[in-house]
C-alpha cells in the first residue's frame, strides 16, 4: 500500500502523538512506523501497561501511560498533562465471541470509551485530529452482534463529533489482520498443541490484510480529514478471500500433525447470514465487503488508486446523545445488549430519510431476489429487521410500486 511520506510527515512533524491500545499489535506496529517520521513525542496509552515510564528512542520522547479509556476522569487528566495533538485510537474489545459473553465490558470500552476519548479531545485545546480503527463489520446496515454494533456506534459517535466539535475526526476500516487475526492465531494453536483443529464451518471465506497495511491506513487517514464529516479509509484490493479450512489444513501440514478437523458451527458473534444487498452489484468488479451500498455512492480513491475513501450516512445527534446517557446508566448484560441493538435500529431508521430511495430499491432487489434466496437456502427472516425496515422506508414514496412484486415473490 502507498504511503506518501512527505505529506504524512508534514502532518506529524513536531507533533505530540498519542496511541490508545498502544501496546497491542496494531498499536505497536503504528508506533514503529511513527518512529520513521518526525513527531516530537509518542505517548502509548494502554490499560495493560504496569508502570508509567519515559525514554528516548531515535531522538523522540516515548511515554508509556497506564489508563483505561473507560476511566473518563483519568483520561481527562492525562490529556491535560501531556497535551497531545494527534490521537490514534486503537483500544477496543475486538473479539466478537468474547463480546457476546462480556457485553457490558464491550459496550463500556468500545462505545463509552470512545465517547470519553472524543470528549477529552474536545476539552483539550492542543488536540487537532483523531483517527479511529473501526471494522468492516460496521458497514452492515443493522446487526444484532455486540462487537459489530459497538463499532458501528463508535462510527456514529465520531461522525457526530466531527459535525459539532472543534477537532477533526477520521476512521479506517480493517478486516481480518494477518498475524493479528483471532482466527489465524486460534487455528495455529489448535494445529500446534491440540488433538483436533476446530473451525466454524466449511465454505467460510474471509478477506485479510496485514499489520503494515493497517498502520499505513491510519497514517493515510490524516490526509483525508474534512470539516464537519468523518471520512473512513479502507484497502481497495483485499485480494481473493481465503477459506478457513485452507488455513487449518496449512497449519496441520506445517506442524506435521495427523489430527482431524472438526466443524463446530458458528458461535455467538459469528452467526449473522451475509445479506447480498450489502454490496453494490452495479459495480461487480469493485465489490468490497467493507463498504455498503449507501456508502459506495460517496466513494473516491486516493491518488495512488489503492485506498477507498468514503463516509457514513448521518444520524440524529440528539438521539445519539440520549442513547449514550442511557448506556451510562443501565446495568445487566442483556439490558445493555437490548439497548445497544434497539438504539442501533432507531438510528438506522432515522438515517434512511437522508438516503437515495433508488439505492434502497436496488438493495432490496439484490438482497431478496427469489433466485438468490433459493440458491442460499435462505428466507427473508434470516436477515432480521433489515428487510422490513428498508421496505417501510419506501412505503410513503412513489418508489414503493417498484418492489411490490419482489416482496410478494420473495415471501412465497
UniProtKB/TrEMBL annotation:
Residues 18-176 form the Polysaccharide biosynthesis protein CapD-like domain. It comes from the Bacteria. InterPro entries: NAD(P)-bd_dom_sf, Polysac_CapD-like, Polysaccharide_Synthase-Rel. It holds the Pfam family Polysacc_synt_2. Belongs to the polysaccharide synthase family. This is Polysaccharide biosynthesis protein. It comes from Fontibacter flavus.
Amino acid at each position: 500500500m502507498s504511503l506518501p511520506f512527505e505529506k504524512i510527515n508534514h502532518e506529524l512533524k513536531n507533533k505530540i502523538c498519542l496511541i490508545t491500545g498502544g501496546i497491542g499489535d496494531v498499536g505497536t506496529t503504528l508506533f514503529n512506523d511513527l518512529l520513521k517520521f518526525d513527531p516530537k513525542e509518542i505517548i502509548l496509552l494502554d490499560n495493560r501497561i504496569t508502570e508509567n515510564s519515559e525514554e528516548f528512542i531515535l531522538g523522540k520522547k516515548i511515554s508509556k501511560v497506564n489508563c483505561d479509556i473507560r476511566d473518563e476522569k483519568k483520561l481527562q487528566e492525562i490529556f491535560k498533562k501531556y497535551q497531545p495533538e494527534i490521537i490514534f485510537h486503537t483500544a477496543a474489545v475486538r473479539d466478537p465471541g468474547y463480546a457476546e459473553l462480556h457485553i457490558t465490558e464491550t459496550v463500556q470500552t468500545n462505545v463509552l470509551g470512545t465517547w470519553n476519548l472524543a470528549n477529552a479531545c474536545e476539552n483539550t485545546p492542543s488536540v487537532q485530529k483523531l483517527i479511529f480503527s473501526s471494522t468492516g463489520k460496521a458497514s452492515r446496515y443493522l446487526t444484532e452482534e455486540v462487537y459489530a454494533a459497538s463499532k458501528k456506534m463508535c462510527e456514529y459517535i465520531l461522525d457526530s463529533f466531527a459535525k459539532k466539535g472543534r477537532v477533526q475526526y477520521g476512521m479506517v476500516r480493517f478486516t481480518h489482520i494477518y498475524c493479528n487475526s483471532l482466527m489465524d492465531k486460534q487455528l495455529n494453536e489448535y494445529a500446534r498443541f491440540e488433538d483436533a483443529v476446530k473451525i466454524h464451518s466449511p465454505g467460510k471465506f474471509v478477506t485479510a490484510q496485514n499489520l503494515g497495511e493497517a498502520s499505513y491506513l491510519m497514517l493515510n487517514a490524516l490526509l483525508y480529514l474534512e470539516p464537519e464529516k468523518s471520512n473512513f479509509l479502507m484497502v481497495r484490493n483485499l485480494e481473493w478471500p481465503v477459506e478457513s479450512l485452507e488455513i487449518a489444513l496449512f497449519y496441520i501440514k506445517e506442524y506435521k500433525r495427523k489430527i482431524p478437523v472438526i466443524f463446530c458451527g458458528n458461535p455467538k458473534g459469528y452467526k449473522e447470514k451475509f445479506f447480498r444487498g450489502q454490496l453494490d452489484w452495479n459495480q461487480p468488479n469493485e465489490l468490497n465487503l467493507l463498504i455498503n451500498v449507501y456508502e459506495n455512492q460517496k466513494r473516491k480513491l486516493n491518488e495512488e488508486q489503492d485506498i477507498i475513501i468514503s463516509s457514513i450516512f448521518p444520524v440524529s445527534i440528539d438521539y445519539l446523545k440520549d442513547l449514550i446517557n442511557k448506556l451510562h446508566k443501565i446495568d445487566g448484560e442483556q439490558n445493555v445488549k437490548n439497548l445497544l441493538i434497539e438504539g442501533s435500529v432507531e438510528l438506522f431508521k432515522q438515517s434512511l430519510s437522508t438516503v437515495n430511495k433508488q439505492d434502497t430499491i436496488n438493495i432490496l432487489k439484490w438482497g431478496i431476489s427469489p433466485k438468490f434466496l433459493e440458491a442460499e437456502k435462505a428466507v427473508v427472516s434470516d436477515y432480521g429487521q433489515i428487510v422490513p425496515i428498508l421496505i417501510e422506508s419506501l412505503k410513503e414514496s412513489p418508489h414503493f410500486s417498484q418492489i411490490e412484486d419482489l416482496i410478494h415473490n420473495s415471501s412465497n
